[in-house]
Hints:
Blueprint: H1 10-38, H2 43-49, H3 53-81, H4 85-112
Amino acid sequence: MRNVGGAHRGLNLWLTQRAGALVMALYLIGFLVYAWIAGPLDYAAWHGLFVPLGAKAASLLFVAVLLVHSWIGLREIFIDYVHPIAMRLPLSFMFAVLYLGCLIWTADILWGVK
């Protein structure tokens, strides 16, 4: 049997993904309750939902966990279906940069709400 690099990380990645799914589920339940308590949601109400620091931090955490969750899934897809390492590494790098850009953009949007 050949030695595949990083082959013993499966359980840790699986647990990370499941913990992330739990955080996302708790956020969604909390956000739905938070939005329901706020009443009718027009633009001003939606804007007001993201003014408190706690809402900004929780939303940024949600997006960060979502990106980690999707990165783990994408990594597994690349390992399973993109066999040439010369294709897999640039694809992984491209998506890492894309996900990092999405996280920075989310932070900029959330902290731009005043």
